[in-house]
Amino acid sequence: MERVTQAQIELGRPEKQEQEQLRILRISVRNQTARMEEIVPERTLFISRLPNEIISWILRCSMQNSNPDSAHLHRKRELAGVCRHWRDIILHTPSFWTFIKVTPTWSELFVNICVTRSRHSFLDIEVCSWEDKINQALLLDLLNILVPCAHRWRSFSVLYDVAYPHRYLTLARIECLNLPSLTHVFIVCVPETLGENQTPFDPVFLHQTSSPHLDELFIGGKFVNSAGFKIPATVRTLSLEWGPPHFLASPGISFPRLTILRMSGDSNKDLILHPNSIWLPVLEEFECLIMNPTGLLRAIVAPKLYHFIYDGPAEAFIGLESKFSTVGYLSLYEADVECDPDSIWSAFPCIHHLDVYRGCRDLFREFKKKLDGPDRWQHLKSLTLCSYGGDPLTHISRCKILDCFVAWLTRYRSKDPSKFRVKFDSHVHFKNWDAVSTVYRMLHGRCIIEWEGTRFMDGFRLSGATDGTLSLVRLFHGMQMRRLLILFVPSL
Predict the structure, then answer these.
(1) Could you tell me the CA-to-CA distances from 85 to 42, 49, 118 in Å, in that order?
(2) Which regions of 171-314 does DSSP assign to beta strands (E)?
(3) I need a labelling partner for 39 at 20 to 30 A (CA). Which of 59, 129, 237, 490 fits?
(4) For residue 406, what is the enclosing H or E element?
(5) pLDDT tens-digit profile of 35-60?
(6) Quick one: three-class SS letters along 145-203?
């Protein structure tokens, strides 16, 4: 009997040991679980311990990098759904609600939410995506929500995709508003009159008294040719799409704060501008892309002008010797320099940098023709070859333009090649290898070549080192991934 009892005890001992081990294991698991519960929340709350201002900045950057059409709808909803802390930041930070699109895809409810949550912050209003078939009543309802807070408007834009009836309605609704906080305006295709009654459009909201802090104005339309319209004196950047307006003909007109002036479109044949009649004391950049600009060029007086961007006939500069002697940066688009290159050289005697587009290829031919005379642009230190598209280097090679430019380099810059730079902008696209090889071998050793960012075929870019080495870089979704191979080395 004792032997049986002893056997039972021996059989039960392993079972008890197993149970004890399981109990210890369970206790260990509980302890480790409790410890992880203490550690993990600290890890997940790391970003939450950042100041709200930094988190808000990160979230805004994420929204800006997303699709513009969904940045303030879907992307904002996605970010708010990550955690309660992010949701609270988005809901209670006014800067997330200051951009408002007046568009059919934005409901009245959502626009009202933006106005409310932006609190007292400045608003950026953009009118876009209105087609003829869309009911105008919705547009008017959205504008009526925003008009009561017009004192908070910081910027106002009417884009190209707004149909004319909706454009008329928008401009008529805001025509007489007071916008004391408005600094930026972008409006295209503004008509001379509004509605069927042909009522003259007078943008009172652009007057000095209505928008006393207006800083940047982009405006296109025939209404600017109205003699009664004037640009506020506070404007620093002015862009006009329909050529020189009538108000420029006012005697003694001056823009005391204007630093950037851009003009494009057809010139006004009825506009008479007197020489040296437009005083621009602080103008630094002038973009002239209008037809027949001779009168305007003679009228402008800009003692601090540095960057001149031009698209037009070279003959417009005849008789303007040294008028733009302060210009150090000249960009030429389609200037017909073959007719009279001397007029450009004499009008801009002191330029340091020159941008040349496809339309100015004859400039290099004229360089070669004038090699026997003095260096016309002895201050020139760099040249950028630009392109509207296509394969400009193949075109240049075919026209022997580089031969002319190399001849000029050899004649006037051979003493110190390191002091002259030639750059290809990011829009230049090499489509065949022969063009790259030709350009490299002709220019290397005569100047410093800057290849950085220049496109080669699809998905590749060229990269040049300071020692003259040229390499090929592979891109992935627009980002540089890795250098594939070295194409040229200085010894070649």
Answers:
(1) 14, 10, 19
(2) 184-190, 193-194, 199-200, 216-221, 237-240, 260-265, 278-279, 285-290, 300-301, 307-310
(3) 59
(4) helix 401-412
(5) 776 665 555 556 667 788 888 888 88
(6) HHHHHHHHEEEEEECCCECHHHHHHHHHHHCCCCCCCCCEEEEEEECCEECCCCEECCC
Q: Count CB-CB contacts under 10 A for residue 466.
A: 7
Q: Is 469 exposed, middle or buried (0-12, 13-18, 19+ CB in 10 A)?
A: middle
Per-residue pLDDT tens digits for 307-334: 999 988 778 888 888 899 999 999 887 6
The helix or strand, by DSSP H or E, that contains position 449, with its residue range, turns out to be strand 448-450
Closest by CA to 384, choosing from 436, 447, 323, is 447
Non-local (6+) Cβ contacts of 411 within 8 A are 371
Q: Which stretches of 260-311 are DSSP H helices? A: 294-299
Pair of tokens at residue 120: 């007292």
pLDDT at 33 over 70: yes
Please, which residues have CB within 8 angstroms of residue 83's CB and are 6 or more apart in sequence? 48
Q: Going by C-beta distance under 8 Å and a sequence separation of 6 or more, which residues neighbour residue 336?
A: 313, 314, 315, 359, 362
Q: Which two tokens stand for residue 460?
A: 């590749």
From the list 220, 149, 221, the residue with the least C-alpha distance to 178 is 149
- 378-432 pLDDT tens trace: 788 888 877 655 445 555 555 566 777 777 777 776 667 677 888 877 666 666 6
Residue type for position 464: G
pLDDT the model gives residue 217: 93
Residue 72 in tokens: 């303030």
* Structural tokens at position 93: 């930070």
pLDDT score of 449: 79
8 A C-beta contact, residue 393 and residue 439: yes
What is the DSSP track for 75-117?
HHHHHHTT-HHHHHHHHH-GGGG-EEEESTTS-HHHHHHHHHH
DSSP code per residue over 16-66: HHHHHHHHHHHHHHHHHHHHHHHHHHHHHTTGGGS-HHHHHHHHHHHHHTS
